[in-house]
Amino acid sequence: MTDKTTSKNINLNQSNRPFRIITHSKCTDGLFSAWIMKRYFNEILNLKKEEKLTKKQIEEIPVIGTQAYAIQKDDELEFTPYDIVLDLPKPDQNIFFWCDHHSSNKPQSHEEVKLANQKHHFEIADSNTGLLINLAIKHSKQNKTPFTKKQLEELEQFKVASDIMDMAKYNKKQIQNCYYLKENLEKYNQENASALLKSHILSSFVHSRDYYLTTEFLKFTANSAADTNSITPLNDQNLWDLKPHIWHIARLKGHKEWRKQLDTFVEFDEETKMVIVDKRKIRKEFGLFDRFYVYLKFPEAIYNLNLKITFDGNARLGLGANIFEKDKRKLDVGETLKELSKLHGEGSGGGHAAVGGATVFENNADLAIAFIKEKIKEAHK
To answer: Which of 162, 208, 226, 278 could form a disulfide with 58 if both were Cys (CB 3.0 to 4.6 A apart)?
Structure first.
């Protein structure tokens, strides 16, 4: 669904346009969406010749990372008519451009996306990065400045990798390749890695537990797009100069440590065929969460629920369907978590048909688990 309207309040020809890019933080799709947005800013927005920004102007656009709850709670951010919001719910305020692919954020009607002065794009798709790539290709072709065959091939490779990562469309060989440490560490070098593995390596930058470190890497990665001739971030030398493979190797070692302690806080609910990873039971957590390991450990599982308590006194839940048994899922995960968040939290929840997240009040955590169990039972009657 695309909405194109012109604002009476915005002059695109003026030189001082305080654009901001606001993207999904601590998220690979949010990271890559910001890179693609900066790299193909004029093409994605389909700006006229006199409206286009210079490379320097694009480079100076600030990038802000945030979570869906900051928008859904409506009190975390002040939006402006020049804001560009990616891979997140649409704010109620007037913004310049919104692009998203989550089924739970689908507008109920054309009027819900219609905001004066904006060109919005919503489409249920595997990745938001892929949507932005499609827009860049489409508009470049319309304006008779199409990409070359080689450039299109690079974009397609990157789009496929982004789609696999965001919608968890891995096969077991790809899981082994991307989540388990190899003996030969040279396979993580830029020249040796596949497009999918390169995407994983670069995404390690935004999966640190340190907020400030993650934020700075998001900004650096996105800003690099305006300072490179690379077609995708996979060959952006500015990023590889930071030695991201070292971060990725450390991340894989963290996954290995996490798997060792899983038995102390995991249970399998036979009735719902759901693995429950309840981090309230952990006395001290080691390593980094591996969201797919439970499907290898419990191949009969259909769902996987993860719960942790956040620093602000809430409980964060992540629910996904077994990526190796996709046909067995009957529950709409995104819609279920959207409903859950309104019932037991402040309304921050949603996602896709097969995966999503929600935030609820900490004292409602057990009620939230019970709610999900009941919804699964109803869906599988």
So the answer is: 226
Cβ 359 vs Cβ 310: under 8 Å:
yes
d(CA 299, CA 279): 21
Dihedral of CA 290/210/85/349: which sign?
A: positive
d(CA 374, CA 147): 50
Q: In the predicted model, what is the mean pLDDT of residues 16-36?
A: 94
Number of domains in the chain: 2
**351: which 2 tokens?**
């996602």
Q: Are 307 and 365 in contact, with CB atoms under 8 Å apart? A: yes
Q: What are the pLDDT digits (tens) for 244-274?
A: 999 999 999 999 999 988 888 899 999 999 9
Print the domain residue range for 173.
Answer: 2-250
Quote the DSSP letter at residue 182.
-
Residues whose CB is less than 8 angstroms from the CB of residue 192 and which lie 6 or more positions away in sequence, other chains included: 186
Which residue, 4, 1, 42, 13, is CA-closest to 119? 4
Task: Give domain status of residue 134, yes or no.
Answer: yes
- The whole-number average pLDDT for the span 154-159 is 98
Phi and psi angles of residue 320, each rounded to the nearest 5 degrees, phi first: -140, 160
Residues 143 and 19 in one domain: yes
What one-character-per-residue DSSP string does 111-155 give? HHH--TT-EEEE---S-HHHHHHHHHHHHHHHTT-PPPHHHHHHH
